[in-house]
């Protein structure tokens, strides 16, 4: 399964990249597993305040499909 991951803001700075494509061996991967995997891999901090979007849908959770795009977004404020 191929998943495109996009990192924004301070997350991209900490990871040292804005995007990557992961080839995963299992077809049974969910959003939380992927988040834990990526944040462990890059020793990213403050995982609780990070928002996740799957295929541009904020707050998505559950299983991922081949070809999905997952974005990790730092906290932000509007005005």
Automatic annotation (TrEMBL):
Lineage, top-rank taxon, reads Bacteria
Q: Which InterPro entries match?
A: Beta-grasp_dom_sf, Mopterin_synth/thiamin_S_b, ThiS/MoaD-like
Protein name (record): MoaD/ThiS family protein
């Amino acid at each position: 399964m191929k998943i495109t991951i996009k990192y924004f803001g301070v997350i991209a700075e900490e990871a040292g990249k804005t995007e990557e494509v992961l080839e995963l061996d299992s077809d049974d991967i969910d959003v939380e597993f992927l988040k834990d995997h990526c944040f462990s891999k890059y020793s990213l901090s403050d995982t609780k305040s990070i928002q996740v979007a799957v295929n541009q849908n904020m707050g998505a959770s559950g299983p991922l499909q081949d070809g999905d795009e997952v974005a990790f977004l730092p906290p932000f404020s509007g005005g």
